[in-house]
Amino acid sequence: MSEEPHGEEHHDFIGLCQAIGFVVIHWALIEQQVDNWVDAVFHHCGGENLRKDKDIPRAFNQKRKFLIVCFKKLPSLAPFSREGQNLVTRLTELSVKRNDLIHGAITALSPINGAFQYRIIGYEKQAHTLREFGFDLHDFSILEKSLSDTLTEVIKFSEKLADTFLHGMTTPTEDSDPKGRR
Questions:
Q1: Phi and psi at residue 121, in whole multiples of 5°?
Q2: What are the C-alpha distances in Å from 143 to residues 15, 22, 26, 136?
Q3: Which of 32, 154, 26, 151 is nearest to 101 (CA)?
Q4: What predicted TM-score, i.e. pTM, was given to this entire model?
Q5: Which of 149, 170, 138 is nearest to 30 (CA)?
Q6: Starting from the edge strand earliest in sequence, which strands make up the sheet with 128-136, in order?
Q7: Which of 54, 62, 110, 115 is the most buried (most CB within 10 A)?
Q8: pLDDT value of position 167
Q9: How confident is the model at residue 4 (pLDDT cuts 50, 70, 90)?
Q10: How many CA atoms does the CB half-sphere of 162 hold within 13 Å?
């Protein structure tokens, strides 16, 4: 790795850090909504019966697969099926870029021809793979808009699911103590 960047290169590096922070924060907010979907579908729509071990999915890939199956098979989700599947597909596409930026490592602290160079290790059954790619900060505005728009849409979808399946329900914490203490 090269020495610490100075001047314009330092500005570029700070820009990269800000862009990655934006991705991290937005993805956390997006995935929190996906967790809300999983919870509603698992506990209130019959999704638990579609899980072999009756466990709630934890990793994004598990959640993605679970939700697609639920949107296709559960009658109570029929009114949400197309929108839900489309959102999950969109999230899957965004997750690839997110994973590259979060799990990849920059190979230099300064951009080369305007792009930060990354290297990411992939995993096959019995081997590691290595892939390199560039991330140009000038292209970040496209990813920024996509993450922002997607966050807005997943929140709206969460509200639709909550209005349909959770309206008037109390949370497990509220149920656990009859006097409402936490």
A1: -90, 130
A2: 14, 10, 11, 11
A3: 26
A4: 0.84
A5: 149
A6: 105-106, 115-123, 128-136
A7: 110
A8: 78
A9: low
A10: 12
